[in-house]
């Protein structure tokens, strides 16, 4: 029996609130790091793992979460994930050491990996009318994107008013309320009887986990560090082995036919590259505003409100465009706007006034908001219900990995240019290179004690390096926009790449 309108609204509200919480936790902790470092005596590496421990587990186990939902029931796995996430949030708030906090953050990542894939699958089953479903997914995607956007805005004032633990306590009442609502209103759907793909699960967790670890530690330890090379080698071995195992499995956790569909492939590229560029920018902008421009964490967070506002505006707009014209227009436009925003941001330096570049933040927010909803709608329209959890987990994994890779790759570009430029500047000043350490972003107020000429050289080198990184990100997003435009160009013979298993196999010619 289909849920009536009020029940559908409560289901949507529950799913939106929990996804907002999961996305918020990706970024809200950033403004709390200085206070955490002071009170828990954390080093730079420890603070980095406070942030990335969540992403590491989340990215490594998303595919597993989707498979478990398909196997044991999406409602059951969703509730389990929400309970784990809420408990992890409480543990993080109560942590008395850096190690305990990192472990709690990883526990949160496990919960998010369990609840995220089932959220979109449940929406698909509850909202059966195509137009109603598109509106629901538009709101769900917009709220998810909003969680990423408002994290920095909320983080600074919350830390200033209540301390760093408050950024974790905020999840607990939301999680408890979500559990009560979900237990009462979320419908259960028949689980799909199939064997668990244990080799695939093990290889995916090992491969993605090792890849994320190598990307996180590479910039800090050096790309030739033995441990970094070891984990990179593990990833280079495990991920191809995972593809081989899935291709041969009769019941894989990742159906490789997903990537035979050009629309789904275009959606995957869009999700990956949007996170690649925008997570990289979100990582660097606070360093520019706080360490170079001298803004407070709260002021830097509030500066992101225009971007947040445009995400809210763009999510329903992209939903309407997708319903009318398909995903091609909003995806290509979103990627192009993100590319333009990153490129334009590289035109402004430390002396730029906020009013001069606020239009760039509006452009970036519009671009981000345009890409979220079409990706989700493409999955629901082109994947049969039995594989919806796997497909949702695949796209979310690619988004998360895209963000991690974006920070690592653009960070490597920035670090290399910064080192070279700063060494030349200090040599011209006749100052020892050690005066350039620490660099912007490595500690709060880290350049204030430097002599004025050296401080100016450090800041100028940082801005020059940041501009190069932003331009590289802009070029990558522009290339992605072109690729997606080609993948999603209109064709008369469009069929889903993942047909329902009860249907007869389609002729090969019909799938092209």
Tags for this entry?
Growth Hormone, Chain: A, 3 domains, 18 helices, disordered C terminus
Describe the protein's architecture and organization.
By secondary structure, this protein is mostly helical. The chain has three domains: 1-194, MFS general substrate transporter like domains (Growth Hormone, Chain: A); 198-250, no CATH class; 260-490, Growth Hormone, Chain: A, CATH 1.20.1250.20. The protein is built from 18 helices and no strands. The chain has helices spanning 5-27, 33-40, 44-72, 74-93, 98-126, 130-162, 166-169, 171-185, 198-221, 226-248, 262-292, 297-302, 305-325, 328-345, 354-382, 388-429, 452-487, 508-511. It is globular, with a radius of gyration of 23 Å. 54% of the residues are buried. Residues 438-445 and 494-512 have low confidence and may be disordered.
How much of the polypeptide forms β-strand, as a percent range? under 5%
CATH class of the largest domain, anyone? Mainly Alpha
What is the helix fraction of residues, given as a range? over 70%
Number of strands: 0
Which residues sit in consecutive blocks of at least 5 with pLDDT less than 50? 438-445, 494-512
Mean pLDDT: 78
Radius of gyration: 23 Å
Label the overall shape.
Answer: globular
Q: What sequence of helices (H) and strands (E) makes up the elements?
A: HHHHHHHHHHHHHHHHHH
CATH homologous superfamily classification of the largest domain: MFS general substrate transporter like domains
Secondary structure category: mainly alpha
Give me the CATH fold name of the largest domain: Growth Hormone, Chain: A
Number of helices: 18
End-to-end separation: 37 Å
Main pleated sheet: none
Total tally of structural domains:
3
Q: What's the architecture of the largest domain in CATH terms?
A: Up-down Bundle
């Amino acid at each position: 029996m289909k849920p009536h309108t009020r029940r559908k609204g409560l289901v949507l509200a529950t799913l939106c609130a929990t996804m907002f919480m999961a996305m918020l936790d990706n970024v809200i902790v950033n403004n709390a790091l200085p206070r955490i470092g002071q009170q828990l005596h954390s080093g730079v590496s420890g603070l980095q793992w406070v942030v990335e421990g969540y992403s590491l587990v989340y990215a490594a186990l998303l595919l597993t979460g989707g498979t478990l939902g398909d196997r044991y029931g999406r409602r059951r796995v969703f509730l389990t994930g929400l309970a784990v996430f809420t408990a992890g949030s409480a543990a993080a708030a109560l942590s008395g050491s850096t190690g305990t906090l990192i472990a709690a953050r990883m526990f949160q990542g496990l919960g998010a990996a369990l609840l995220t894939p089932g959220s979109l699958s449940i929406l698909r089953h509850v909202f059966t009318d195509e137009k109603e479903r598109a509106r629901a997914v538009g709101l769900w995607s917009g709220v998810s994107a909003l969680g990423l956007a408002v994290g920095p805005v909320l983080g600074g004032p919350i830390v200033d008013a209540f301390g760093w633990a408050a950024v974790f306590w905020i999840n607990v009442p939301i999680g408890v309320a979500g559990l009560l609502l979900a237990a009462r209103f979320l419908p259960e759907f028949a689980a799909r009887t199939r064997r668990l793909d244990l080799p695939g699960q093990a290889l995916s967790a090992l491969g993605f986990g090792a890849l994320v670890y190598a990307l996180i530690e590479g910039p800090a330890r050096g790309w030739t560090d033995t441990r970094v090379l070891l984990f990179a080698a593990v990833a280079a071995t495990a991920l191809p082995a995972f593809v081989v195992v899935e291709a041969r499995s009769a019941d894989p956790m990742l159906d490789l036919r997903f990537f035979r569909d050009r629309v789904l492939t275009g959606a995957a590229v869009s999700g990956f590259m949007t996170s690649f560029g925008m997570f990289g920018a979100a990582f660097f902008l606070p360093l520019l505003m706080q360490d170079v421009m001298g803004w407070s964490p709260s002021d830097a967070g509030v500066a992101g409100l225009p971007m947040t506002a445009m995400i809210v505006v763009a999510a329903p707009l992209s939903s309407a465009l997708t319903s009318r014209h398909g995903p091609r227009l909003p995806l290509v436009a979103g990627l192009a706007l993100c590319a333009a925003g990153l490129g334009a941001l590289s035109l402004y330096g430390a002396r730029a006034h906020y009013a001069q570049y606020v239009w760039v933040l509006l452009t970036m927010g519009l671009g981000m908001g345009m890409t979220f909803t079409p990706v989700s709608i493409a999955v629901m329209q082109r994947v049969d219900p039995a594989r919806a959890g796997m497909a949702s987990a695949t796209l979310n994994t690619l988004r998360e990995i895209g963000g991690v890779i974006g920070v690592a790759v653009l960070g490597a570009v920035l670090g290399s240019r910064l080192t070279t430029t700063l060494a030349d500047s200090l040599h011209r000043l006749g100052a020892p290179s050690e005066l350039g350490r620490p660099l912007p972003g490595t500690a709060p107020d880290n350049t204030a004690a430097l002599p004025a000429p050296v401080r100016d050289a450090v800041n100028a080198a940082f801005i020059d390096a940041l501009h190069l990184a932003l331009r590289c990100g802009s070029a990558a997003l522009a290339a992605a926009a072109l690729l997606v435009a080609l993948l999603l160009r209109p064709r008369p013979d469009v069929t889903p790449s993942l047909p329902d298993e009860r249907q007869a196999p389609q002729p090969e010619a019909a799938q092209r």
